[in-house]
């Protein structure tokens, strides 16, 4: 595995050179996880940053009745764990599990901090990444409070397009693999209600789903559906 090459594709290290990230390689360890395997649970000590090398992870919470809400999904070259890592409590605020068989690069807090201190460009990217996480959390909460299910589904798809969309001849493809059940857990709604909201978008030719991936065929219409509840 080209560990340096993977790090250079991430939001944190993308401005650096190969020689820069090679300084960190002695402190990077590789771990593999099977589908459904827990990486950590809410409340565990937070002492490592995770870079997804292969596969897909989900950050989630589960209530006492076993109902799950997915807060974020991380595909290859995604980064997670930074919130707990830098929080004064030093604890995980969400659980993290593998949605598919995954390989991760784990970087412990102390060597990461030393590295960021030597590389201001990476430090700036880390601060940006933390700011994005804070904004995402705020909008996720307000979206559940203010938006109906159709709006929440459209709004989520718009945000995923911005972060994970790639242009193909068939439209914008989301690199994430998401089932309708997983989409429902993202917007804190029942699968049946999410299916109805999706059916309206599919029927209008705005989106489609094939092979576990969503395709966006009319981004302007999707953005209009996302804004509709705010008008």
SSE arrangement:
Layout (H helix, E strand, L loop, with lengths): L2 H6 L9 H5 L5 E6 L4 E3 L7 E7 L2 E6 L5 E7 L4 E2 L1 H5 L8 E4 L3 E7 H10 L1 H27 L2 H16 E4 L2 E4 L5 H7 L4 H13 L3 E4 L2 E4 L2 H10 L3
Antiparallel strand pairs: 1-8, 2-7, 3-6, 3-8, 4-5, 4-7, 9-10, 10-12, 11-12
Helix pairs in contact: 6-8, 6-9, 7-8
3D structure, described in words:
- With 231 residues, the chain is of the alpha+beta class.
- The protein has 2 domains: 3-140, Sandwich (Jelly Rolls); 148-228, Winged helix-like DNA-binding domain superfamily/Winged helix DNA-binding domain (Arc Repressor Mutant, subunit A).
- Helices cover 43% and strands 25% of the residues.
- It contains 9 helices and 12 strands.
- It has helices spanning 3-8, 18-22, 82-86, 109-118, 120-146, 149-164, 180-186, 191-203, 219-228; strands at 28-33, 38-40, 48-54, 57-62, 68-74, 79-80, 95-98, 102-108, 165-168, 171-174, 207-210, 213-216.
- A 4-stranded antiparallel sheet has the order 1-8-3-6. Strands 2-7-4-5 form a 4-stranded antiparallel sheet. Strands 9-10-12-11 form a 4-stranded antiparallel sheet.
- Helix 6 (149-164) packs across helix 9 (219-228).
- The chain is globular and about 50 Å long.
- The termini are far apart.
- The model has no long low-confidence stretch (mean pLDDT 88).
């Amino acid at each position: 595995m080209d560990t340096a090459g993977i790090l250079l594709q991430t939001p944190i290290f993308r401005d650096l050179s190969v020689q820069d990230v090679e300084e960190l390689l002695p402190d990077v360890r590789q771990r593999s996880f099977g589908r459904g395997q827990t990486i950590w649970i809410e409340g565990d000590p937070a002492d490592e940053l995770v870079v997804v090398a292969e596969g897909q992870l989900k950050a989630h919470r589960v209530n006492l009745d076993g109902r799950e809400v997915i807060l974020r999904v991380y595909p290859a070259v995604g980064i997670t764990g930074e919130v707990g890592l830098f929080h004064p409590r030093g604890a995980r605020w969400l659980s993290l599990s593998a949605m598919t068989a995954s390989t991760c690069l784990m970087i412990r807090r102390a060597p990461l901090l030393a590295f960021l201190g030597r590389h201001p460009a990476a430090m700036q990217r880390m601060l940006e990444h933390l700011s994005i996480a804070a904004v995402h959390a705020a909008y996720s909460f307000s979206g559940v409070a203010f938006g109906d299910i159709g709006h929440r589904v459209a709004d989520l798809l718009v945000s995923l397009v911005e972060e994970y969309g790639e242009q193909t001849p068939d439209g914008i493809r989301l690199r994430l693999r998401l089932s309708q059940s997983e989409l429902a857990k993202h917007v804190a709604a029942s699968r049946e209600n999410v299916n109805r909201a999706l059916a309206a978008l599919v029927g209008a030719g705005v989106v489609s789903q094939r092979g576990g991936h969503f395709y966006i065929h009319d981004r302007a219409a999707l953005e209009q559906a996302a804004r509709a509840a705010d008008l």
